[in-house]
């Protein structure tokens, strides 16, 4: 008699950074400026309990504009990941786009396939970690987050109501508070 294990689904919870993980104060690159959004640790703990791996997908135009360096961003990212770890949450990976098509300086001024609304960062995460995007979720606070998720084939898109315009043209679950996102986690 043989026993077969059911295949483990490698699904992800993709999170935008500014506005979802931290309060978007604009071009945040120092830990002193980094205020965690209420409920983010709890939400990620719930996601991990349901076997979601956690990834951050973030545009970082501040690098392109010369407001801070990639090293500044990476230093803050290491600090952020440690804060999550202190709360029992593992951030599997962080993908960032340092480019801007029109407002960048030096080699950062370019049109790329990673800057949201393009799906490049999500596709890279999928390929690097063998993720099932159809079983994954993306939480963001901008339409460009939802467009990137849609382009990557993520059906469960959650848009946190914010100060950004929402023309209601893209399909997404719209929530007012981050804690409301947990209802969309699958068993």
Describe the structure.
The chain has 5 helices and 6 strands, in the order E-H-E-H-H-E-H-E-H-E-E. It is of the alpha/beta class and 187 residues long. The chain has a single domain (18-184), classed as HAD superfamily/HAD-like (Rossmann fold, 3-Layer(aba) Sandwich). Mean pLDDT is 93; it is low at 1-6.
- State the CATH superfamily name: HAD superfamily/HAD-like
Sheet having the most strands = 6 strands, parallel
Number of strands: 6
Assign the structural class, choosing from mainly alpha, mainly beta, alpha/beta, alpha+beta, or little secondary structure. Answer: alpha/beta
> Any idea what the shape is?
globular
CATH architecture: 3-Layer(aba) Sandwich
Radius of gyration: 16 Å
Number of helices: 5
- Please trace the helix and strand order, writing H or E for each element: EHEHHEHEHEE
**End-to-end gap:** 29 Å
For the record, the CATH class is Alpha Beta
Strand percentage lies at 15-25%
Task: Report the uncertain regions.
Answer: 1-6
Question: Could you give a quick summary of the protein structure above?
Answer:
This protein is an alpha/beta fold and 187 residues long. The chain has helices spanning 40-49, 61-64, 70-86, 120-129, 143-152, and strands at 11-15, 52-59, 91-97, 137-140, 156-160, 173-175.
């Amino acid at each position: 008699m043989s026993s077969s294990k059911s295949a483990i689904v490698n699904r992800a919870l993709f999170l935008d950074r500014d506005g979802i993980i931290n309060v978007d104060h604009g071009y945040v690159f120092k830990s002193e400026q980094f205020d965690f959004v209420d409920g983010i640790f709890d939400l990620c703990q719930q996601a991990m309990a349901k076997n979601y791996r956690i990834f951050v997908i973030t545009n970082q135009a501040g690098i392109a504009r010369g407001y801070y360096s990639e090293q500044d961003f990476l230093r803050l990212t290491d600090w952020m990941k440690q804060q999550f770890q202190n709360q029992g949450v593992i951030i599997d990976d962080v993908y960032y786009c340092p480019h801007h098509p029109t407002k960048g300086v030096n080699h950062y001024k370019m049109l790329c396939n990673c800057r949201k609304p393009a799906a490049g960062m999500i596709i890279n995460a999928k390929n690097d970690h063998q993720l099932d995007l159809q079983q994954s979720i993306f939480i963001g606070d901008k339409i460009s987050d939802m467009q990137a998720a849609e382009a990557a084939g993520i059906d469960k898109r959650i848009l946190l109501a914010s100060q950004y315009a929402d023309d209601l043209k893209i399909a997404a679950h719209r929530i007012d508070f981050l804690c409301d996102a947990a209802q969309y986690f699958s068993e």
